[in-house]
User: Fold Glycoside hydrolase family 92 protein from Luteibacter pinisoli.
Amino acid sequence: MSSSTRLRRGLLAAALSLALPALAVAASGGKGTSAWSAVDPMIGTGGDGHTFPGATVPFGMVQLSPDTAMPDFKHAYKYAAGYQFADSSIMGFSHTHFSGSGHSDLGDVLVMPIAGDVKLDPGSPDQPGSGYRSRFSHSTEKAEAGYYAVTLSDYDVRAELTANARVGFHRYTFPKGKPAHVLLDLRPSIYDYDGKVLWSTLRVRADGTVTGGRTTRGWAPGRQLYFAMRFNQPITSRELKNREEKIVYRGFGGPGNRNDDADGISGRALEGVFDFGNLDKPLVAKVAISTVSEDNAIANLDKDGEGFDFDARRADARQLWEKTLAVVDLQAPAETRKTFYTALYHAMLSPTLSMDVNGQYRGPDNQVHTAKGFDFYSTWSLWDVYRAQQPLMTLLEPNKSNDFVSSLIAAREASPFGILPVWSYGGMETWCMIGYHAVPVIADAYVKGIRGYDGGKALEAMVASATYGPYGGLDDYMKLGYVPIDHQPEAASKTVEYAFDDWSLAQAAKAMGKDDVAATFMKRAGNWKNSFDTKTGFLRARKADGNYREPFDPSSAAYGSDYTEGNAWQYSWYVPQDIAGLIQALGGSDAFVKKLDSVFDAKVDPKSFAHVEDITGLIGWYAHGNEPSHHVAYLYDYAGQPWKTQERLTQIMKTQYTPTPTGLVGNDDLGQMSAWYIFSALGFYPVAPGSSQYVIGRPFVEKATLNLQNGKHFTVSTDHLDAKHPYVGKVTLNGKDLARTWVTHEELTAGGELHFSMQAEPSKWGTAADAAPYSMSSSAN
Assistant:
């Protein structure tokens, strides 16, 4: 994903005979180790991964995590998750975070425990003691799925965090002999520290509950977030501060002890300091959030935050993660297990619940709505997640997929423009990135038999989004068959992405028996040809008069250019629905493979993309750190040379993922990078969501069993899996030879076993003319 200003993300590296640590079959194999214990939330917290290490539950509304910085707009990209592993101080713990996004926002309800004197500003990380932030050491950090802890060395406070769906739980152990305080700062935002809070409120209610909220002018303008907070020990005194007007309201204690000047305060720069005196036991705080109101936050706290038993809530979070991650039983070496299960963990963080216990949620019209019969989810990085993260959910979490599709439809019904979300969170729209990629999310679910929603409304929503002329040059696209570059930036990318979305819509319409709709959008799916220049062999941007824009440099990439976060070398392969047509346009299979090889084998200086943050993870022109490249390694299958897909996948898996804080070469993008790893480790990938096919690559795990929600079990198994045997020699499905290079969703969900026999040299497996996966040009479907 990216911002509207495009603040976003980027020959084998060694001979195949060299040892690949991720493939080495260890004697222990990790057997007997739980999936939960293999997760390392620190992976991706450094470099460009943009993940957070804090506590959350699967698809939870609360992401309670430490923030090392909330910088100005210029530096916001680096801190999209609020935390950078290379930093040495923490400014507090906030309750909302994106996981792996390429743009920053959130960081709501920042809380900092303080022992001793209280400072009111975070101060500079380069000047210890200049503010309330505290230094810390990674040696004191403990990060698990559902739990995070760290020692704040400047205060000698041990901070522990856990969470459930709507509530974050804090436990702070203060040093003896020093007064304990909790600072609540409503000013910071990960998007921009200063000037982004339009209005905020803070008050202490008669029962001691602290409530408030704020409206921010961040990525989604006018976003509202409310909270309710309670402590397990009485507040001895407190101050509510409006820093903008230098107003301070002081008071004492809880119920019946209200000699304060005011119980509430409002403004744009609010803080609260809550004092607890010298404590002889840990302080527990619990915070519920809501996008609707303070009263709803209180209701969420009453229902989901009962009691102050921190250890019980931590155990609940662990149990939920153990149950969720148990969908895959993996037999692999320890490092592979860590990478795999952390990827599965990251893939199951978004979209996030955005609904209160009474069913209410805030929609893109900024009004309050009530969900009926489904849970409402938001945080949709749709340009990314439609490719693999959402298809992974249709396989592993189909019940959640029903809620996801219902949420997209509900958001469309509340949209002032009557279209599906593009990039939304907290129910609010940002209009970031291109395409109408909620369409393939819905279409893929429908084609795969996930039907717990109104199909008629789903089709209506998809068609409305695909025909809304004012959006992204769609009016020209429908008139000319392409988006003209003299009318719209990134026109070449928009043309091919719209064409794929159209194709997926056609698949859903056909499955619904709406043949007229299917025919209309199947015709539009061929519009990719209108921007593909067969003379140069590249996707190119055309002007409204029909001419290609000149001059043309296929290596050129810039924000707002002909392409979205990429160049012609990267985007010319984006025809997932019609690779056979692309092969023909490039002059046949041999020419196609030769050009595809040149993508990976090119000598490219990474510094040439320094001005485009998102083009990372380079192997030649291939950029694994950004989504337009994610399907490319699988395209050799379509040209009858699957062994080259196997080679390229080996190259990618070896160089692009490691179980370290810097182990993701690009933004995880709300689970897309992680979902790519999971599918590829299992041996197949959804090149064209909506086809119900998974294109076979090669496995990177010894054995994995998918424990599906329908009660079936599907196993991927291998023999001779090691660095000396990187090629697929034979594949069987349920004991029968499988000559084709794809399997279907129905075959996986029926249960059974996909077995790979690996060998040292390339084989003839999958090379027959009829072995290739689906393409619209070569299929009657």
Summary: The chain has two domains: 51-322, 328-719. The longest helix spans residues 491-511. The domain at 328-719 is CATH 1.20.1610.10 (Glycosyl hydrolase family fold).
